[in-house]
Amino acid sequence: MSGRFLSPNDEVELYGRTWRVIDLNEAGETVLRSSDNGQYKAVTEAEIKTAYSHNELTPLVAGGRRTKQARDLLDLSPERQNEAQRRRDYLRLVATRTLRATKEELRRNIKIVGDLLGDSTPPSLATFYRWKKIDEEARAVGDSAIPGHARKGNRTSRIPMEVQDIIRKKLSEDYLNDNRMSLRDVYKKILKIVDGENEKRPKEERLSLPGIGAVRRILHKSFSPQEICIKREGRIAADRKFRIAGKSIAPNYPMEVVQVDHTVSDQIGLDEDLVAILGRLHVAAAIDVYSGMIVGLQVGFEPPSTASLFSLIRNMILPKTYVQERWPEIQTIWECDGPASELGVDRGKDLLSKANIALGHEFQMEIGVCGARRPYQKGGIENFFGLLSRNFSRRIPGATFSNPSERGEYNSMKRACLAYTDIVRLLHQWVIEVHANEPRNEDEGRTRRELWNEGISKRPYIPLRPITDLGVFMAGRATPTLNGKGVRIKNQFYTSPGLELLRRRVGDRKVKVRFDPADMGEAQVFDPENDVWIPAYNTDPLHHGMSLYQLTLERKARLGPGSAAERMLRSAKLGAKFHQDLEATIERSKQRLSGKRRKVDARASGIGIHAHSNIGRFSTGRKSDLPIVHGDSGNQYDDVDLRELKNDDAE
Q1: Could you say which DSSP state residue 129 is in?
Q2: Crossing angle between the packed helical segments 103-117 and 78-97, to the nearest 10 degrees
Q3: Helices 125-137 & 78-97, crossing angle to 10 degrees?
Q4: Mean pLDDT in residue range 582-593
Q5: Could you tell me the CA-to-CA distances from 83 to 19, 124, 134 in Å, in that order?
Q6: For the chain, is the Cβ count within 10 Å smaller at the N or the C terminus?
């Protein structure tokens, strides 16, 4: 015997296959033999109980038929329930009063029980025998006392088989496909076909025209609702419609499972001068499934890409010390950091890129991919984006609203009044101080931060890696020249003490550099001699935390409209005009000097007296400041030789 569940020679259906119970083996396991190929299988008592409790083990009667399904008494009308209870009372009370199974004793006891129950019409002896036989045959099912006429129904269809075949054929051809023809249109085609068949038959053999209700009944009798949905709307839509949204396996500690995704938010960001509209923000976030805490955040204007994903993962792993450094008014510490054991992603190209999978393996993060168009499989991050839209974005002037019908006549462009940097600061403050201190759901009394702090002690120890290792998540690559200004990347200059030491050793040369396009505040320069990466920082502190996209837009705004070629063309035209005027002026001067003799007193004109000459170093240009040379004539310059002055200048 294998406990109270199975006995030898019992037939069961286990995991979709039919088995016969043979006996117990020496290890106490139940030995099963397949009815299909004679294969043997040993299962433990615990496995049998688990399969039975999950409806994966079904007992069978002789011949491999399933046991009769018990009827639910609550599904019956009150009259049928009372009648079933009346029969059970007769069977139970008569059995307790009957000592000898004689007809006279049964009749007397049936009458006595009827008087006890207040029943003026007790059953006859034949009826009682019939009730007892049904009860003995179906006692295990539990519906033996239910009146048979409660299961009455029309057993045969009044629609001829020829018409039923026509209906099923047209339903398969015209209704069960992605064209989604309405049932009424298919019904019209069926009527036309049946009428065409009747024209070929004698009057007495003509087929009756079916009603649309009969067509609908045949549809639902021949095809299941899921099959209909698959044929008309697709398998994914059917899976979404007929799935049972149960709870998934819950993680055991924080950062065991982290879900990652990105969305276009409902905020419009402006530049620092509040003049230029930069556009709608793209938000990428990582949420810890165990606690509901946001563990990574990346905000910018770039569409989803490998660069934005890498920036998000880098933000998730690194400590969030930048929050207090950049925004001292946010005093709450964002305590979430470190790699995840598993990253839950959808089927986006950036999330399934080879680079992302390779770096995930490098940091021991498994990539868990949900099904195509099945957002409910990563409900944590999807729920966060809904909260972000309702509780944050719509409170900011200029919200675009997710649904255009909700926006109505609201002019988002006109109402937008916050700079991009202010929106990023407010978003961090909302995530750290508001979202983290709310309960994860209505049934949870503790906040997300409390769940994180309680479960973080269960998290396995992960050795700390050098900060330069996280440079692999910097998606930007460049090969600038290292010189006295450091390195120049996208019109931004980077330097550091380590970079200065590198230049002293290697001099001015081209170097390999990697940077984060989502945060142009830091870069890493490769030292080929020591095979290490050297951190370097943006020389402009105002550009820390700004993305390459934002810096590019600001530079374009400073340069003004038009391309670089157009601006160069304007400069070229003005330069050409200047040179034409210069050449024309020189030509006119040459014509005026033609045939004339110069009569210029160089000494009186002051030629040679400049700032770089000996005289100019001690004079202000006034006549009283010039050196006094005594002579016989009244002109104090008569004895000054210009050649000497020229020689003095040369010296």
Answers
A1: H
A2: 130
A3: 100
A4: 86
A5: 39, 15, 15
A6: C
How confident is the model at residue 142, as a pLDDT? 47
Q: Strand 481-482 to strand 509-510: parallel, antiparallel, or no bridges (unpaired)?
A: antiparallel
pTM exceeds cut of 0.85: no
Residues 335, 364 contacting (CB under 8 angstroms): no
What is the three-class DSSP state of 8?
A: coil
pLDDT score, position 223: 86
Check residue 72 and give its pLDDT.
60
Report the pLDDT value the prediction gives residue 324, as an integer from 0 to 100. Answer: 92
Q: At what angle do helices 161-170 and 212-222 cross, to 10 degrees?
A: 70
* Residue whose entry in the numeric block shows the structure tokens 């019956």: 76
The angle formed by the CA atoms of residues 225, 230 and 231, to the nearest 5 degrees, is: 100
Helix or strand run (H / E) with residue 383: helix 379-387
Q: Please tell me the predicted confidence (pLDDT) of residue 466.
A: 82
Cβ neighbour number for residue 104 with a 10 Å cutoff: 9
Give the Cβ contact number of residue 494 at 10 Å. 25
Which tokens sit at 19? 């088995």
Cα separation, 245 vs 242, in Å, equals 9
Mean pLDDT value of segment 256-271: 87
pLDDT, residue 497, reads: 92
pLDDT, one tens digit per residue, over 11-65 is 888 877 888 888 877 777 888 888 877 778 888 888 888 887 777 788 887 666 6
Instruction: Name the β-bridge partners of 198.
Output: none
Beta sheet of 492-495, edge-to-edge order: 476-478, 513-516, 519-527, 532-538, 492-495, 487-489
Q: Give the tens place of pLDDT for each residue, 202-247.
A: 888 888 889 999 999 999 888 888 888 888 888 877 777 776 655 5
**How far is residue 148's CA from residue 124's CA, in Å, rounded to a whole number?**
17
Q: Is the pLDDT of residue 156 over 70?
A: no
**Gap between the Cα atoms of 566 and 563, Å rounded:** 5
- Mean pLDDT across 533-555: 85
- Cα separation of 263 and 352, whole Å? 17
For 328-341, b/e burial (b = at least 16 CB within 10 A) is eebeeebebebbbb
181: left (phi over 0), alpha (psi -120 to 50) or beta: beta
Phi, psi of 333, deg, nearest 5: -80, 135
Beta bridge partners of 34: 19
